[in-house]
Structures are given as structure tokens and as C-alpha cells.
Specification:
mainly beta
């Protein structure tokens, strides 16, 4: 009971104080320039905004954002006050030469349907003579705080709609002399209609509202209720809703006072700026732009920068973050860290991409030296064939038949060769390294006319499909036959056949076995 009594006393005391303050200001309300509102650029507290233009989308329930914006407006009043005597200007001065402001703002999502935001504007510094020539303007102070609410209505084919309202309290006016143009003489309300359209990385947005505010005058200018608008175009160079997102935007804002006589009394300005989202969801914003009229509230130019925190939930179709030390900031699981097509659960090197060169590609690890000849694949001209290290051209990674090395042995059923015949990877192109041994085969056939028919037989390992390897073995056998014919071996003495991987000489479970199975053989099928 006692607590309720104290509460009533405090409430009545506050009402009395406000009434007293209002009464003390009664005469000032009619003063020239008293209650003039200078801020037509009102930053939206919503992180889903362009700058001032608010998008209909809302934050998830209880997800929040906070930030601060510093801006400088040059000559925001756009009026010179003067003393005139007998038709001659005796003194003239800028009412407000420049103003530096700080807006502290934040927003929170409500029930996945609405978003509530608050802006606490502070004038850090302003210079000028106020609304009276020879006067003195308060250099710093509070401006009118703004409470903003928006509600998402619907979205159809990328076009979203919503409604909003912004209300202010006359704090700035009641903590200054009135002529300091820090705020209106009473509260204001601005209901709005919000629209936004997204197509790919582009966003087009429009806000239209009606601003209800106390009437204020300055010389022959009257500031009263107004129609307001904000129109924006934004383009995401990188998706702004993801880490390292970059958004460029251009925006125009203004108000057309009900009863204004001309464009001169219509405040308008344009803003060009950019937003950047860091890996940790910090938002850095910067922009600048000129005034587009000479109306009260339109600065000659404005520059601003802001820093904010905006945690957002990522789209995670694969599931929540796996906290494996790889991009854990994005809140999403990374099933394949190195994006090599092998899921981390079976990838022996989850943070290093497999080089996909047909050599042990199932382990997920890059193989720097496939053939194990101590020559890295990056400089190895034959990465799948080990160098023979015979003191003859041992630096290129390819085995060479050194001088006098190519030898051929003829048996009853075969022509045996001293080295393999090598081909380009997955092709039937004979490598130059094999020319000497094929030349030796051609010489042996030319010298041994008793050998009437030789079948050249191609064999492969089991990498790939059966049909693919069958054709590859045939093509390679034919390539060898064509080479021998070009070396003057009669074509009628030669034939070719491919066996694919049907006749292995070694196990295909090891790379060494596969290398043995990739071969060309010469079978003697007819002789005198």
C-alpha cells in the first residue's frame, strides 16, 4: 500500500513538472524560429533499412541490433537572419552554420511480425547565431528521441509491404532556449506505408508517410504537417546478409509541407553510400550527399558514418554450426570445409582441397608428388610416372631412355621391350620419351622378316568404366601401330587389339599395380 502511494506521488510530481515547463515556454512558442525542426534525415533504427528508407522485413523474435551514427550537416537551416533599417541590411548571419550529431540507435524483433526501434539523437556541436541576429546558439544538447514501430504485412513475388509509425518526444526543445532549433515544441507522429522489391542483388524501396507536428514559424516560412517520402535503390556487390557483404545504395528523402507554396519550401536531399558487414556481423556504413533544395532542414551537404552490431541467423539447410574451427562465425555447419566434394567425415584433410588428378582422390588430401619421385607435381612433366634417376635428364620428372638404353628381345611368342610405352594422361598420344623404344621395335621388325604378323595389344588399369577403358586400350594400341607404320614397317604385318582392364598383370588395389597394368605388348602371331 505504501509503495503504491509513493508511486502515485512520483507520477503526479512528474506531471506537475512537465506542466510547469510547458507553461514557462508558453511565450516562447510564438517566438520566431521557436520549435523549427531541422532534421529531415532521420536514420532508421532498423538494420533492414537502406539509410533512412525502412524495408518491410522484420528481425526474428527477440533478435536485436544496436549502433551509432555520426553525421555532419552544413548549413541545415538554409536561412540567413538579418537586421534591416531604412531598406539597408545592417547585419546578416547564418542561424546554424554547421551541426555534428550522434544518433544512438537499436532495434528488436517482436514475434516474427514486428520490429521496435529507438533512436536517441544528440547534437555534439553546432555553430551559428540561432534564430536571432547577434544571438547565441546552444553548442550541444539533446534532440528529440524517436520511437519507431514497423509491422510486416505481406510479400508477393518479391514485393513486400508493411506499415510503420515514428513518434517523437519534445526533449530537445525543453532542454534549450527554443531558438537553438534542437526540436519541436511538442510530440510528433508519422504513420508510414512501407514497400520493398528485391530482384537478385538489387533492392528498390519506398516509404510514404504523413508527419503530424506542432506549427512553427521563421520569418515568412511556416512549418506544419507534411507528406514525407524516402526512395532508395540498393545493389549488393556481395550478399549483405552474409559475412563480408557489401551494399551500395542511393537514397532521396524529403517532405512536402501541407500548404507550402513552392519547391523552395520543400526539404529534399540525396545520399550516396555503402554498407559493409564483417565476419563478426559488425556493420560499417558511410555516406554523403547534397541538399536538393534550399528549404529549412535541407543542408548544403551532409556526410555521415556509422558502426553497428547486427547478429543475423544464417540460412543453414545442412544444420547448425559444427564448431570445427572453420568459419564458425556464420552459425552454419560446414559439411565440406575445403569444397572438394568429399564430406569432412570421410575427408582425411578436411581443410585442404583434394587436387582431383586421378591419383588417390578418395582420401581428400592433395598429393604433391603422385609418383613419389621427389619431384613435386607442380614441376613434374610426368606426375604419374616416376623419374628413373639414371643420370640422364633426371630433373624433368620423366623417365628417359638414356643413350644406348632402348633394347628389344624377340622370343617365340613376343617382342619384349626394355621400358614401358608412355602416353599422355587419359589420351592415346605417345609421349616423346617412348620414341626410342618404338624406334628399336621398328628396327627389330625390319631386320627380322621371318616375323610375318605382330598383334599390338593395349591394356589399362581399372580406373573408369569398362567401355571407356576398352576404347582407350584400343586407341593406344592403334597409335603404336600407326607409329611403326610411319617408321616403314609394312602395315600388313601389323594388327592391334584392346583388352581394357580384362587382363591385369598385377593388383589394381595399389598405384604400383595400376602402373604395371597400363601397358602395351607385342604378340607374335605368325612367323616362318
Amino acid at each position: 500500500m505504501e509503495m503504491k502511494t509513493y508511486s502515485r506521488i512520483w507520477f503526479i510530481s512528474i506531471i506537475l513538472c512537465l506542466t510547469t515547463i510547458g507553461a514557462s515556454k508558453k511565450d516562447a512558442l510564438a517566438a520566431d524560429g521557436d520549435g523549427i525542426s531541422l532534421e529531415t534525415f532521420k536514420l532508421s533504427p532498423s538494420m533492414g533499412a537502406i539509410f533512412e528508407t525502412t524495408l518491410p522485413e522484420v528481425k526474428e523474435h527477440r533478435w536485436w541490433s544496436i549502433g551509432g551514427l555520426v553525421s555532419y550537416a552544413h548549413r541545415p537551416l538554409r536561412r540567413e537572419t538579418s537586421v534591416v533599417s531604412t531598406g539597408e541590411v545592417l547585419e546578416e548571419a547564418d542561424a546554424v552554420q554547421g551541426r555534428v550529431s550522434l544518433d544512438l540507435y537499436g532495434a528488436i524483433g517482436l514475434f516474427d511480425l514486428a520490429e521496435l526501434g529507438l533512436v536517441l539523437p544528440l547534437v555534439l556541436f553546432q555553430s551559428g547565431e540561432g534564430t536571432e541576429v547577434g544571438g547565441d546558439i546552444q553548442s550541444a544538447g539533446f534532440a528529440d528521441p524517436r520511437l519507431a514501430l514497423k509491422v510486416r504485412i505481406a510479400e508477393i513475388a518479391g514485393l513486400a509491404f508493411g506499415v510503420g509509425a515514428v513518434v517523437t518526444a519534445p526533449l530537445g526543445h525543453y532542454v534549450s532556449s527554443g531558438g537553438d532549433v534542437l526540436g519541436s515544441t511538442g510530440p510528433t507522429a508519422e504513420p508510414q506505408v512501407l514497400a520493398g522489391f528485391r530482384t537478385g542483388p538489387a533492392i528498390i524501396a519506398l516509404n510514404v508517410g504523413v508527419l503530424f507536428r506542432p506549427e512553427a514559424t521563421l520569418a515568412n516560412y511556416t512549418q506544419t504537417h507534411a507528406l514525407t517520402w524516402n526512395a532508395s535503390f540498393a545493389y549488393d556487390i556481395r550478399n549483405f546478409d552474409e559475412p563480408q557483404g557489401i551494399r551500395l545504395a542511393i537514397e532521396t528523402n524529403g517532405e512536402a509541407g501541407i500548404g507550402f507554396d513552392s519547391l523552395i519550401e520543400t526539404p529534399m536531399e540525396a545520399i550516396l553510400g555503402a554498407k559493409y558487414r564483417t565476419e563478426q556481423d559488425f556493420i560499417i556504413t558511410a555516406g554523403a550527399g547534397p541538399g536538393m533544395s534550399t528549404a529549412v532542414g535541407t543542408p548544403a551537404f551532409r556526410v555521415f558514418a556509422s558502426f553497428a552490431i547486427d547478429r543475423v541467423r544464417r540460412s543453414c539447410p545442412a544444420g547448425p554450426e559444427d564448431m570445427d574451427g572453420f568459419e564458425d562465425h556464420d552459425k552454419c555447419i560446414d559439411p565440406d570445409n575445403d569444397q572438394d566434394g568429399l564430406l569432412d567425415g570421410v575427408d582425411d584433410c578436411p581443410n585442404e582441397a583434394e587436387d582431383q588428378d586421378k591419383f588417390q582422390d578418395q582420401d581428400g588430401c592433395p598429393d604433391r608428388d603422385n609418383d613419389g619421385d621427389a619431384i613435386p607435381d607442380a614441376v613434374d612433366k610426368c606426375p604419374m610416372i616416376p623419374e628413373d634417376v639414371d643420370d640422364y635428364e633426371d630433373d624433368d620428372g620423366c623417365p628417359e631412355e638414356g643413350p644406348g638404353r632402348a633394347t628389344v628381345k624377340i622370343t617365340d611368342s613376343q617382342i619384349l621391350i626394355s621400358s614401358k610405352i608412355y602416353f599422355d594422361f587419359d589420351k592415346a598420344t605417345i609421349k616423346p620419351v617412348s620414341y626410342p623404344i618404338l624406334n628399336a621395335v621398328a628396327e627389330a621388325l625390319t631386320a627380322n622378316t621371318a616375323i610375318k604378323k605382330v598383334q599390338i595389344e593395349g591394356h589399362t588399369d581399372n580406373e573408369g568404366t569398362e567401355d571407356y577403358n576398352q576404347k582407350l586400350s584400343e586407341d593406344r594400341a592403334k597409335a603404336v601401330m600407326d607409329y611403326l607404320i610411319n617408321k616403314k614397317v609394312q602395315s600388313e604385318r601389323l594388327s592391334y587389339k584392346g583388352y581394357g582392364f580384362s587382363r591385369p598383370k598385377a593388383s589394381n588395389r595399389t598405384e604400383e599395380g595400376k602402373a604395371i597394368n597400363r601397358r602395351v605388348e607385342f604378340a607374335i602371331i605368325e612367323r616362318d
